[in-house]
Amino acid sequence: MKKLMNAPGDFVDQALDGLTLANPSLVRDGESGRVIRRAEGIRKGKVGIASGGGSGHLPLFTGYVGRGLLDTCSIGNVFEGPNVGSCMDAIRLADGGRGVLRLYGNYGGDRMNFDMAGEMLEDEIRTTTVLGNDDIASAPPEESAKRRGVAGIIYAYKIAGANAETGADLDEVTAIAAKAVASTRTIGVSLSPCQVPGSAKPTFEIADDEIEMGMGIHGEPGIWRNKLRPADEIADEMVQRLLAEAPGNAGSEVSVLVNGLGATPLEELFILYRRVAEKLGESGLRIVQPLVGNYVTSMEMAGASISLCFLDDEMKGLLAAPAECPFWRV
Fold first, then answer.
1. Distance between CA 70 and CA 94 in Å, rounded?
2. Cis omega (within 30 of 0) on the bond before 11?
């Protein structure tokens, strides 16, 4: 294992130290220092948005704390959800007196700990929950509630965060976050694994000449594994699968995220995007605010994901609203 680190046990905390030192808009907080919050704190009278998840996915989760996005984020060890105490700290620190939306990915440990935190604070702070579940490879359409949350959750962060900045109440912010999640579909491909600090082996094995369609960001099994194919063929299949699951009320405008998983060069992501844009145009869709880059990674995993967020006028306006965090500015 080759990593620029000191002791594996210090990996997360030292990374958080570096993140906040490099970005004065962010502050470490909470009893264990495992909450990142906006340096100016929560604005009184604004609905708060708290998220959380495991380390190893930067910019997700902590990188999206900022104006017009998240207010706080609890963080766990690499590929491990945050503990209950950190979830409670994140909710408290996001409370501006009008309640807090808990917005995070659909993973068992995250759900359990955020649910417990909400229950323990229910006499103190009103909270609601929206789960990201955009990964179409993780369960069939009829079981969409079981799907994992992956890169598409950043659309919910942006749209709900912009709505909260307008002074919307908790029910309104919750509803628009749920709408954004319901309007987003993601699928990924993997070319090589990553290795968790301190682990004796990579998260999975894949041959140098193979690719796996639909693999999850922690190495969860995908749809198929086969020999590597040209980028256009891969992009075509990904777009076809995503469009086959477009929401029934989808309009003609869509935002596209071509996301790198950590080790894929930007040049390769742009090769994918050019084909994605071509295929969407052939399908009669107009692209709004395309995103290409590393928005949700998996340590040094090689591969990419494509997310489509099918927009209506309300979401389109919120997506374009001003926002600022260390990794995304509008």
1. 9
2. no
Q: Could you report the per-residue pLDDT of 206-257, keeping only the tens digit for each?
A: 999 999 999 999 999 999 999 999 999 999 999 999 999 999 999 999 999 9
Cα–Cα dist 81/166, whole Å: 30
CB 76 within 8 A of CB 121: no
Q: List the catalytic residues.
A: 57, 218
Q: Which of 265, 186, 216 is nearest to 57 (CA)?
A: 216
Distance separating the N- and C-terminal Cα atoms of the chain: 37
User: Which of 155, 135, 145 lies closest to 216 in space, CA to CA?
Assistant: 135
What is the rounded distance in angstroms from the CA atom of residue 40 to the CA atom of residue 25?
8
Residue 90 contacts residue 70 (beta carbons within 8 Å): no
Structure confidence by residue, pLDDT tens digits, 194-216:
999 999 999 999 999 999 999 99
**Model confidence over 152-170: pLDDT tens digits?**
999 999 999 999 999 999 9
Yes or no: say if 159 and 318 are a contact pair by the CB < 8 Å rule. Answer: yes
Close Cβ partners of 123 (under 8 Å, ≥ 6 residues apart): none
* Residue partners of 259: CB distance under 8 A and separation at least 6: 151, 188, 269, 291, 293, 294, 295, 296, 304, 305, 306, 307
> What is the C-alpha R_g of the chain?
19
Contacts of 10 (CB under 8 A, 6+ apart): none
Q: Which of 83, 73, 91 is nearest to 35 (CA)?
A: 73
